[in-house]
Each structure stands twice: as C-alpha cells, then as structure tokens.
Amino acid sequence: MCTMSWERPSPRVRELIRRGAEIALDPPAEWLAELDAATLSGPNRRQVAEDPVLTAALKRTNRSNLLGWASANIRAPGERVPADLGEAPLAFARDLIRRGLDESALDAYRSGQGVAVRLWLRIAFSLTSDPDELRELVEVSCRSIEAFVDDTVAAISVQMTREREQLTRGTHAERLETVTLLLDGAPITASRAEHRLGYRLSGDHTAAIVWSDDALGDLDRVADLLAAAAGEPRPLTVLASAATRWVWVHGAPDDAVLRAGVARFPAVRVALGSSGLDADGFRRSHLDALTVQRMLARLASPHQLATHEEVELVALLTTDAERADRFVRRTLGSLATADPEVIEAVRAFIAANCNATTAAARLYTHRNTLLRRLARASKLLPRPLEQNLVHVGVALEVHRWRAQ
C-alpha cells in the first residue's frame, strides 16, 4: 500500500514524472476506453451506466481528472495535486443528486484509480530501467494518485451535500419528488400530486425526455416546442438534471411540427414515449421514453428524435447490443454496407408487403429503378430476400437506428 506521508522526490525522479505526465496528457483512445469501462461497471454504477446523460458526464469527469493530474505533474512533478473541482466533476455531482443517487456512485473514482495506476505503471517502466529510480518513481506516483483521488472524492462529497440541501428547498425538488412518487407507484393521491405539480393527471399524456451533452441553454426551448406541437398550454417540465428535462403534455404532439422545430437545435435530443391514459399512462409514457433514450445511447444512434412507436421492436432486440450486431451482420451480409438507396429500396419493398409498384411510389422513383436496386440487394444478401423477409426487415430496422 502507498503511504500518505509527503516527501519531495529526487530531482531525477521529478524529471521522470514530468516526462511521464507529458505522455499521460495525450492518452491513447484504448486507455480512455478502459478507464470509462471500469468506472461504469459495478452495482453502484448501474443507474449511471444506464443513463446516457450521466454516462457522458462521468466520461467527461474521467478526462478532467486524468488531464488535471497530468498537467499538475508537468508544472510541479511529484507535488501533491489539488482536488479536481472543475466544471465536469461538479456537474456530475449535481446530476447524481438530481437523479436521487448518493455518494456510493463515487466508487467510480476508486475503480478509475485502479486503472490509472495500472496505465501509469506502463509509462513508468518505459521511462527507466534503473531499479532505484523505478522504485522511487512508483512509490511517489502511487502516493500522488491515491492522495489526488482521496482529496477529490472528499471535495465532491461536500459539494453533493450542498447540492442536496439546495434542492430540498426548491420548487424543482418538490416536482421531482412528486413525479418520482408517481413513477414508483407510491400511494400519493391524484389531487395532491396535481396540486404539487400544477398539472392535471386525468386524460391522455405523452412523456418526453429532452437532453443534451453541451447545449444546456436550449433544453427548455425544445421542451416549449414539444408543448406547442401538442397544443399544450400548461406542460409539466421537471429538471431531472442539469442536462435533462422530463416533460409531459396532454394528448400527443404533431410529429411533423415537432421534428421541424427540434431540427433547429441539433445538439438537443428527444425521446418520446407512447401516449397513455390517466396516472398509469403518465407513468407508462415516461418509462417508454426512458426505453427510447437508453436504446439511442446503447446504439450510439445518430438520430436526434425517436418515438417509442417507431423503435419499440428495435429496443427489445438490442438489449444485448453485441448479439444484435451479430444478428444484423449475419442477416444482411454485404447489404449492410451497400449504398443507401439500395438499402432503402429493400426496406420500402418489405414495408409495402413486397409490392414493387407501391414501394416505388413511396420512394418517388420508377418501378424499374426499384427492381434494379432489389436485384443488386439480392446479390449482397447471404440468403435470397424472398426466403428471409422477416429477418431482413427486422435487421434493417436495427441497422437504421444504430451508429454506422
């Protein structure tokens, strides 16, 4: 174990630390991937890993910690590195509290520490082969990383306590608490919930999750667009985190109006649930929107807006993303990388119940053009289309929504 006593390292080891920190300042992508995977694994981080906003926030925090420690050791090699209280870790702390999570999620820092030490040792062993230098270098580095993580976790815990105190005194906290009770099926009366939310629970509801990694100022604008597309004068908007809004409207938004409006804010994403009746529909629509959001994150989908109706099947199929990818590759073969017009021809043909005339009309193309594209697709598929229609249709839906 590393001791926490602090002694300044020798000039030679300070120089080695500085050189190593310069390498760590520009880590390979696979190192960052390993760090992210470690910090997102484990039972205490399950809710973080399943939430794309929290996942993105944790990844930003990982980079902030890594770059902060490396930069400090370039400036002052071997000195105690101050806790990282930059924008990324503080935003992550706020989002944890607003999601109802506690300090146990900070175990991610400990997992990250283990990976950081292992990766740093690779650097250390590349810097010197002298046993005395190497021993001192490893001891000082281990002590520095451990102290940095301890100090940062302690400081973030204090920030989380302050954030929790602020939230419990605000209107947003009351809304979030009430919505959470409704979503959990807790015994709160409809009249009390309506009074606290300022929103009617009777009738049809459509829920949406609006989020962004960086365009936080546009979240409320998109929430307003959603309400306008539904003709809802009094939507319910809940501040789920700094980067996320939960929204409910009565009825359903006009799809074309909503898509046109959201397109003006390309950094904001929207997951739309199915419509449902009364308090149960209020809850179910939100859970459906959550399913859509998680699917988009799981597939790293480029789509800005998705509805539960259009992705329900894909969401079910891609719970295990790796197996879904294998299914797509096995079913589509070379068609998966064909020109977009060829892929769209097959998708339209299947959607039109294999009626080439109808499919061509939907694509605004000549029937003979469609038939040529279908013939090209048949050569790319592992099995003839007519023998595997259902599987090809499903695989194309998954292919449509995942990152290409």
From TrEMBL:
Segments forming domain CdaR GGDEF-like: 191-295
Residue ranges of domain PucR C-terminal helix-turn-helix in the record: 343-396
Gene3D superfamilies found in the cross-reference section: PucR C-terminal helix-turn-helix domain (1.10.10.2840)
Domain of life where this protein originates: Bacteria
First and last residue of the signal peptide: none
Family: Belongs to the CdaR family.
Protein name per the record: DNA-binding transcriptional regulator, PucR family
Organism name: Lentzea flava
